[in-house]
């Protein structure tokens, strides 16, 4: 079983390739949380994987909370791996994820980082088309190496690009991000909204509701996955004052039709 968390498709695309290469099933963490589905029975030889993005050099809180509450039933010692997708570096993300596993009595056998296009348009401009293509090409090769390592059952094996000042970024910057950047108040919708309802369907926090055909954020904070703003087909959702002038990023695996229905 591979559990994944994804807002704009990077982690889902990675998880899907891993699942195909390893012969494992997929489960969306956001869906599992909303349905209260925290139980899983591992069959003999079944691997347990987690694929998730890096948010400000740490794993999303939704992921670590899910892991801490996961109820697993198994015999023997299951092989557990994790892959975190990041724009450039992961900081101490894997250390925090490993700690969450340990709190649930689980041991992480291998961990990897995977550089993918950045989607944090609340802070930065999106990558250029050339940068996106280059990252996709490198990621494909990296995923093949990861699949091979997992198939070989390499234990205590970690290939994570922490980057410079990883400790400071994770311990100092991430808490500041959690305190301020996860607030939903700066979200707003413009008159370009076509009332397709896609934002409500894909919100990983389940906190968007359509009122009179327009999205309303019903909670003070959210996962800040940025699915709503990046995947809006009309570019009608904004966050603060800067996103109107920035591009949008959606992995090709999360394309949309004109009526807003997901194709994947």
As residue ranges, the low-confidence spans are 257-261
Radius of gyration: 18 Å
Mean pLDDT: 92
Shape: globular
Name the CATH superfamily assignment of the largest domain: Flavodoxin domain
Provide the number of structural domains. Answer: 2
Helicity level: 25-40%
CATH architect. name of the largest domain:
3-Layer(aba) Sandwich
The string of secondary-structure elements, in order, is EHEHEEHEEHEHEHEHEEHE
At the first level of CATH, what is the class of the largest domain? Alpha Beta
In short:
The protein is an alpha/beta fold and about 260 residues long.
Task: Tell me the layout of helices and strands.
Elements: E1 2-4, H1 10-22, E2 26-28, H2 29-35, E3 39-41, E4 48-53, H3 61-69, E5 71-73, E6 80-86, H4 93-103, E7 110-115, H5 129-151, E8 157-159, H6 166-180, E9 187-189, H7 198-202, E10 208-211, E11 214-217, H8 227-231, E12 237-239
Parallel strand pairs: 1-2, 1-4, 3-5, 4-6, 6-7, 7-8
Antiparallel strand pairs: 9-12, 10-11
Helix pairs in contact: 1-5, 3-4
What does this structure look like?
With 264 residues, the chain is α/β, with parallel strands linked by helices. It has two domains: 2-164, Flavodoxin domain (Rossmann fold); 187-245, Alpha-Beta Plaits (2-Layer Sandwich), CATH 3.30.70. Helices cover 33% and strands 18% of the residues. It is built from eight helices and twelve strands. Strands 2-1-4-6-7-8 form a six-stranded parallel β-sheet. Strands 3-5 form a two-stranded parallel sheet. Strands 9-12 form a two-stranded antiparallel sheet. β7, α5 (129-151) and β8 form a beta-alpha-beta unit. α1 (10-22) packs parallel to α5 and α3 runs parallel beside α4. The longest helix is centred in the middle third of the chain and has 23 residues, at 129-151. It starts with a strand and ends in a 25-residue tail after the last strand. 39% of the residues are buried.
């Amino acid at each position: 079983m591979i559990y994944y968390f994804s807002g704009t498709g990077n982690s889902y695309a990675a998880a899907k390739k891993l699942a195909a290469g390893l012969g494992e099933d997929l489960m969306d963490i956001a869906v599992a949380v909303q349905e209260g589905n925290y139980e899983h029975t591992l069959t003999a030889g079944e691997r347990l994987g987690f694929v998730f993005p890096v948010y400000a050099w740490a794993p999303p809180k939704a992921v670590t909370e899910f892991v801490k509450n996961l109820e697993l039933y198994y015999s023997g010692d299951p092989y557990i791996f994790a892959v975190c997708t990041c724009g450039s570096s992961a900081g101490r993300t894997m250390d925090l994820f490993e700690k969450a596993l340990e709190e649930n009595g689980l041991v992480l056998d291998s961990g990897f980082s995977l550089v993918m296009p950045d989607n944090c348009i609340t802070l930065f401009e999106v990558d250029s088309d050339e940068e996106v293509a280059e990252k996709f090409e490198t990621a494909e090769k990296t995923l093949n190496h990861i699949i091979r390592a997992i198939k070989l059952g390499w234990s205590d094996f970690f290939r994570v690009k922490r980057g410079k000042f990883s400790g400071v970024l994770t311990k100092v910057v991430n808490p500041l991000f959690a305190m301020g950047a996860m607030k939903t108040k700066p979200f707003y919708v413009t008159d370009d909204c076509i009332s397709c309802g896609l934002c409500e369907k894909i919100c990983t926090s389940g906190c968007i509701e359509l009122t009179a055909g327009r999205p309303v954020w019903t909670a003070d904070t959210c996962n800040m996955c940025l699915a709503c703003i990046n995947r809006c087909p009309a570019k009608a959702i904004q966050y603060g004052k800067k996103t109107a002038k920035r591009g949008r990023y959606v992995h090709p695996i999360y394309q949309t039709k004109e009526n807003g229905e997901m194709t994947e």
